[in-house]
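quick one, 197 residues, struct below
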Amino acid sequence: MAGKTTNILIVGVGGQGTLLTSRILAQVAVQLGHDVKVSEIHGMAQRGGSVVSEVRYGDKIYSPIIKKGDADIILAFEKLEAARWLDYLKPGGMVIINNNRVDPLPVMSGKVKYPQDIDRRVAELVERTLVVDASAIAVACGNVRAANVVLVGVLAAAIGLPGDQVEKAIREMVPAKALAINLKAFNEGQKQYGNIA
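---
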């Protein structure tokens, strides 16, 4: 992998755990000996506002910013956010979408309708699109808030991150009271989608 840079764009809305996810992935990359840069754009970071994290790792990373058309993977915690950031994906890149809908303010106020079939439309544009029921898996693990770590498991399976290194990073980043559920969520995401690599 000499000279290779991996660019992961993590998109969602406030309160979904995108920032924790970026920190877990950055920690894994550090543990694997990569140079890592992380950028976090909070937008309206309260619940419902758009949140974007960029994780870049490789031999030498000079900037934390992913340019349009350069993301290897878009990890979307919400369907509309996947569509909103699609022009950042490189040709042949992969989109992982949580099958989750969070209505933005214009939809809640009735000014606009939430677009239908977003995940299907994304899949028509991007051959490597994976729609994941991460929220449902997280509920089965004991807490819907662990959906982000389910998605980390799916991503790890998709790009071949070593499970033991991801678990080590989760142990370092997740508070003790939430650790057991998050480890279970990671393992479920990795197991249920482990055949996609």
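The mean pLDDT is 91.
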